[in-house]
Amino acid sequence: MIKKFCLSLLLACALVLGLSLTPTTTAQAATDHSLTAVQKKGTLVMGTAPDYPPYEFETTIHGKTQVVGMDVAVGQKIAKDLGVKLVIKSMSFDSLLVALQTGKVDMVISGMNPTPARRKNVAFTHTYYQGGYSIVINKSDQGRYKDKDSFKGQNLGAQTGTTLYNESKKQTTGTTIKGMTTISNLVLALQSHKVAGVAMEKPSAKAYVANNKQLVMIPSHFNLSAADTSTAVAFKKGSTALVTAANKSVDQIKHQDLINKDYLPAAGQYLKTNTVNTSMWHYWKAFLTGVKYTLIITVCAVFFGFILGVLLALLRLGHGGLLQTAGRWLATAYVEFIRGTPMMVQVMFVYFGLGLIVNLPALTSGIIAISLNSGAYVAEYIRGGINSVDAGQTEAARSLGLTRTATLRYVVLPQALKNIWPSLGNEFITLIKDSSIVSIIGVSELIYQSNIVRSDTYRGVAPIVVIMVLYFILTFTASRLLNHFEKKWQHA
């Protein structure tokens, strides 16, 4: 009797548990439209950081710059199997997962290790490649360093946001770990002796050493059991259907050994093509593209920033009723907040934060962020310029019958603009240089293009010299034009 009762109780519990779990599972499956959404739009957007050969890097094909590499081939395989077109979005490595979580990209393929910490925030496919760690050093130090334990008292570089960076900090003692956002920056730091070595994935280390005779590779001797050196494709959390579909492609890649048979050899051919001609003139189109986007961002930011600055200045100068008081407080709060936060944070907030509401392109987001930032500073310039106009000018205009608006438009603002023109000119020149910040979200301005050229050619200093000259030409030309107009106003 007791046995029957216990058996009945167990069956009842199993039935209740099954009923409670079934709707949840069904509901989750019903709400997972990740695969159908991708197939409906016809594109699969892949986020990557193309500065990590042979995983992903840029090359020139038929006069056009394209992202290529082993990871790109993996992405193309997945997109082809899904029956959609692959679209590649480039950005810094440490921005990739944020872009995935905010819907800027559908997947991330960038030599990414599926660590437990990352699995809490994104979904991973099966692993498609098992790598390892090596350390790249200057050839002149070949007898000095043997492995990771040889860098005590020295600086060891690693790319921030990567598993290797975290493991370098955990598995070394007495060594300072220097983190940078790109491998090309780390290699430049190595060649300029800012770091003694750079820890990186073995395929990337082989690529840099093969194309730079001043570098050599040494074993790292990292404890690989404590670190996941495999790479996988990352998808947004909850994209079960999409992950399942991608796993079929990944399994085929592993079963047919496509990485070693096809993808890595093809990447090697592109690397050889990049190093055939590493002159800066060969990359003039890349630098021209950088100049174009730098000017687009600067001109748009100046235009919209000036309009916003005028509105904010007028609101801050408003007195009287409740509405004007509220406007003054709101404008003051905006100016203080914008001036009190870094522009880089503002750029990332507009691109990723507002991306949760509306999917803005990287260029548009960069223009909006820099315009909003510039508006706060321009507002203070204009407010100071208006206050610098003698109060007698306003009184004389009003005594002649001009309205307050007409007085502001025809009397005060022209004089204020003349007074603040040097400050506005400085703001314009500053914006030319500050436009470089948008490279973190993948806008192809000068800094972004120089990083790509450095990773493609394995030359660290030459691209920097080129963009320094280009920035100087832009700022010097702008300065001469502004001085020309300033002199005309002085004699007017």
From TrEMBL:
Coiled-coil boundaries: none
Membrane topology: Multi-pass membrane protein
Record bears the keyword Transport: yes
Matching InterPro entries: AA_ABC_transptr_permease_3TM (IPR010065), ArtM/GltK/GlnP/TcyL/YhdX-like (IPR043429), MetI-like (IPR000515), MetI-like_sf (IPR035906), Solute-binding_3/MltF_N (IPR001638)
Keyword tags: Amino-acid transport, Cell membrane, Membrane, Signal, Transmembrane, Transmembrane helix, Transport
Subcellular location, record wording: Cell membrane
UniProt entry tagged with the keyword Membrane: yes
Domain ABC transmembrane type-1: from-to ranges: 291-482
Cited SUPFAM superfamilies: MetI-like (SSF161098), Periplasmic binding protein-like II (SSF53850)
Primary location group: membrane
One Pfam family per UniProt: BPD_transp_1
Transmembrane segments: 293-315, 349-372, 461-482
Residues making up the signal peptide according to the UniProt record: 1-29
NCBIfam families with a match to the protein in the record: HEQRo_perm_3TM
Protein name, as recorded: ABC transporter permease
Source organism: Levilactobacillus zymae
Name of the coding gene: glnPH2_2
